[in-house]
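PROTEIN–LIGAND DATA SHEET

This sheet pairs a single protein chain with one bound small molecule, zinc ion, given as SMILES. Inputs appear in the order they were entered. The predicted three-dimensional arrangement of chain and ligand is reported afterwards as a token string under its own label.
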Amino acid sequence: MRRLLAGAFALSILASAGTVDAAPAADPPHEAGIFREPDLVELTTLDPTLRLDVRYARTDNFTGRAVYSEARAFLQRPAAEALVRVHRALRDKGYGLMVFDGYRPWSVTKLFWDITPADQKVYVADPAKGSRHNRGCAVDLTLFDLATGREVPMPSAYDATNRTAHVTYAGGRAAARAARDLLIEAMTQGGFFVYPYEWWHYDWKDWREYPILDLSFSAAAARAGADGRTAWPSFDLAAARVVDLTWAFDDTTLYWPSSPTGFERTTLHHGPTPGGYFYSASSFCAPEHGGTHLDAPIHFAEGRRTADQVPLAQLIAPGVVVDVRRQAAADRDYRLTVEDLTAWEQVHGRIPQGAIVLLRTGWSERWPDRLGYFGSDTPGDASSLHFPSYGVEAAEWLVRQRAIAALGVDTASIDHGPSNAFEVHRVTLEADVPAFENVAHLEQVPETGAFIAALPMKIAGGSGGPLRIVAFLRPGGALP
Ligand SMILES: [Zn+2]
Ligand SMILES: [Zn+2]
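PREDICTION REPORTED AS:
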């Protein structure tokens, strides 16, 4: 991925920075590991009421020169969305966020290092390590007063390099310290960590998941337009054909073998009433996981989203169907591989960012025959199950390299039958990517071009729940 991005070096920024002493070849450090697909978002496109004061685009910063050619601020999408939530939460208190800096191309970090005297280098990030700003996961900001539009006084100026910048500094005016503490509390609640020596610097909690980048701002904005949500082809819902991918809930609905109960519907009344009209109503009771259902991130990832918290944008998105019916027919424990996915992309093109990926194994044909579907029908025993699903590397690749919104499968689990460590669940749910299980009738959905809506019951605090999932097909859309 780094290789792909290298072509988009921040040349304009270096050019505008004036003369830099000839330095050895400038390359970002190589990092081992799998990272999320970068998804830098310009903050003001999410909320134009955020204020910008990008001092690195002017000369009033510690370098004394304009190191950015444009006054823009970007963050990785989850961090950007969290920042907007903080900004809006502060509204009631009469404040908004004023951003000094967000994503910073690696070349600029290198420039800061090169122009800083040796005895001052402690205050700048070492380009050999990169900074969290380079990952699009750090933001420098302060509060502004909504009533006056003025910056709120803080215990120190932005970029101060002394103890007045420390978050524990107890001197200065009490009002300034209170404003600083309010900002820190609001950002912390939003999922950011303050840097203890700079009250204005906040790191997004998931910064480790993103690579060091050296895209210019304009290249970042172009990428967002090129493969972000905004680039999805428009879809005419009024002209679409709708396919139901949901199994009905009744007493044949399959639940996990160790589930103590299944779906139970009890008639409360069905028939004529003393008032002379007909009336029918039931109550129902069911475990969250069974039938066509959602796995919310918290199912295997403590602290992650519950069923009611999964954003609608992750539930309504373009669909991608990956077919492994042939492999699953030969091996009922088959696991999807990264090679299957790259082969899919060779035929259909790149899996779009934010897509819902659905794995078609052909298992729908076996529903609701418990033995055929699970590979075992021993009540209470989940130790000898046999059905196909995702492999952990493939799931990780989809989450990190393709930034998918959600994944689903037409078997009972996103981990294949023999799994007992549930690695796929852990990898995907930990990344806040929800899953759909026991999806029906994927044979009716083309591999590309469908639009999926997967709306679960909104159970507050739930780890999942019954799901109604449908596919919208373009008129005349090719079927497999
Ligand atoms: Zn489940
Ligand atoms: Zn599951």
